[in-house]
Amino acid sequence: MAEQKNEVAVTFGDKLQDELIAVQTALPKDFNRTRFITEALSVINGNPELQKCNKASIMECLLKGAFLGLSFANKEVYVIPYNNMATFQLDYKGTVKFTKKYSTQPIKDIYAKVVREGDVFTEKIVDGMATIDFSPLPFNDGEIKGAFAVCIFNDGTMIYETMSNKDIQNVRNNYSKASQSKAWKYSFDEMAKKTVLRRLCKHIPTDFESVEAHNAWEDGSGMEFNNSATAIDKSNIVNAFAPKEEPTEDVVVESEVVEEQIEIPDNFK
């Protein structure tokens, strides 16, 4: 009986590895599976609230991060627990990293800034070309008036996007999946930069390596644009998250699959 139980005991790490192998054609060419699994299990291990979440939803979030080739450990992407379900979200720096890597026009720099009360922000047309000028007050913690994002390409050309505070609040209230989240309440400046950066990225031609990466990119915005042409078609995502036949014994969640042993708390078993 003990041998039979050992045969059906499948670790979460094993399951993650199986899923990654199943979707390997959709993963980035430079994807490091062992490192990704190690980091993913470490993130789960360090978040007691996440350990309470539905395991299938955690697996889905992890695979989305894998499709984009971004790191949960480096906080380029997040698995966020919400009502016992895991949700996937891109961070500002993950957005910058992904855009730089997959833009069809080489990017020299891309960034976003908030404009506060007292800062000087102007838009100009010089010789028929749009340009901006930004002079922030040092250590300014005044009211946020808006935000802008800039992309400078290697050939010296530039594109930018601006949003007023009202524009950002409109996106938050009408399209955010969690408009009352801690991020919006306590890190509004970071959310404002992320919002305007995402809008700018719509104008940057990007060569996604797979449809799975494109869908993960859209889903990671934290927004729902139900009437948008860029809304996610989840039917295109590889069926890596489909329910599988459950074993007759309990599934054990451990991390034996990776080179470095990582302990997963008992309450996640």
Nutshell version of this structure?
The chain is of the alpha+beta class. Helix content is 37%, strand content 20%.
Show unreliable segments: 1-9, 227-269
β-sheet strand percentage: 15-25%
Radius of gyration: 21 Å
Order of helices and strands: HHHHHEEHEEEEEHHHH
Report on the architecture of this protein.
The protein is an alpha+beta fold and 269 residues long. The protein has two domains: 158 residues, no CATH class; 100 residues, no CATH class. Helices cover 37% and strands 20% of the residues. The protein contains ten helices and seven strands. It has a three-stranded antiparallel sheet with strand order 3-6-7. A two-stranded antiparallel ribbon has the order 1-2. A hairpin with a 2-residue loop joins β4 and β5. α2 runs antiparallel to α3 and α6 packs parallel to α9. The longest helix is centred in the N-terminal third of the chain and has 14 residues. The N terminus and C terminus are likely disordered.
List key phrases describing it.
10 helices, 269 residues, single chain, 3-stranded antiparallel sheet, 2 domains, disordered N terminus, alpha+beta
